[in-house]
Amino acid sequence: MPETAPCPLQQSPLFAAALARMAASPLWYALPGGPVLAVTRTVPVLGRIALISRPGPALPQTLRRALGVGALIVNAETQAQGAALARAGFVRLATGREVAELSLAGTPENWLARMDGKWRNRLRHAQRQGLELRAAPLPPDRNHWLFHREAAQQAARGYRNLPPALIAAMAAAEPGALTLFTARAEGRSIAAMLFARHGSSASYLIGWSDAAGRATSAHNLLFWTAMDQLRAIGVQVIDLGSCDAQSAPGLARFKLGSGSRARRLGGTWVEVGALTPLHVGLRTVR
């Protein structure tokens, strides 16, 4: 499907092509407001189910039946979309998480003005460290060194990310869509950031650094470099992903300090065939 306005990675042709390479079942479904990407699978008891993550257009109440599935799970893009799903009888499974989004509108001077003062200071600090910066397409290799180092980082910090197989599938589906920015010092990599470009949007996928990378504020310089290079190829907005000040305060400060804005998504909702009329009735009598 063609991309025009910025859209989430989960609703992009890049993501659909990667899922297809992994033998998943992505399905584009045409709606009046534009197409939505659904992923279907078969599970015990419920049978065939569909997942739609962060759709742009409004979803009609007949969508589950139109998709021919026993259950439809929607990760709503906005609070308004979540409220509409509730009115349609969907049951909420989880509240919406906050994400950080960075606009690349304006000039680099405008970007600096939107940044937190401490973030700018770390950027200037990094610019004085003599770091060697590299930017290159990520090869479609699930055993790439970055995945191994981030796996250790995930274990140490207690978080989860997209699986390497899915990221490698995106790299294979559209060579050049994923760019790895690396900072090196004394002949070795000390920090890296990985971005996926999809239409006029980009998504921040992986950030890794060792002690030397943190000491030199390498991520600030890598991110600044990525902003400039992504904007040069038509990116308007960078989706920085989850922004949770409770579970990951340092990462949230980094993302918001860059000039991004936090926005709460609409939550996760499910509609399960025969249960929906009962749920609507209960909501009516309460």
From TrEMBL:
Q: Where does the BioF2-like acetyltransferase domain start and stop, copy by copy?
A: 119-242
Q: Which GO terms describe its molecular function?
A: transferase activity
Keyword Transferase appears in the UniProt entry: yes
Which keywords has UniProt assigned to this entry? Transferase
Among Pfam families, the record links this protein to: Acetyltransf_6
Question: What is the protein named?
Answer: Acetyltransferase (GNAT) family protein
